[in-house]
Amino acid sequence: METSAENARPTFYTVREAAQIMRCNPSTLYRAIREGAFPAVRVRTRYVVPVAAVDKLANEASTSGGCVDVARMAAEHRTAQEIARLTGGAR
């Protein structure tokens, strides 16, 4: 089954779209992104949020049945990246 580009799911959301999906204020999400507490990609002065990150958060909350600490998840991800960088990618 082939999907047209118009109907394909995006890879990234704008911050406003992600905030709307998560039912929070965009300024709250911007603040979390700037503090390194929420995953995003910065392209010059613009941020975009990976759809996979929003999906992961929703899945984590559904699976755990509790509150998901996005800042902790982001910190763990940064730590894993730093370890990979220091060890040459070996785990």
Low-confidence stretches: none
CATH class: Mainly Alpha
Classify the fold: give the CATH topology. Multidrug-efflux Transporter Regulator, Chain: A, Domain 2
Name the helix and strand elements from N-terminus to C-terminus, one letter apiece.
EHHEEHH
Write the layout of secondary structure elements.
Blueprint: E1 12-14, H1 15-22, H2 26-34, E2 41-43, E3 46-50, H3 51-64, H4 70-86
Antiparallel strand pairs: 1-3, 2-3
Structure description:
Strands 1-3-2 form a 3-stranded antiparallel beta sheet. The termini are far apart. With 91 residues, it is α+β, with helices and mostly antiparallel strands. The mean pLDDT is 88. It has helices at 15-22, 26-34, 51-64, 70-86; strands at 12-14, 41-43, 46-50. It has 4 helices and 3 strands, in the order E-H-H-E-E-H-H. It is globular. Helices cover 53% and strands 12% of the residues. It has one domain: Multidrug-efflux Transporter Regulator, Chain: A, Domain 2. Pfam families: HTH_17.
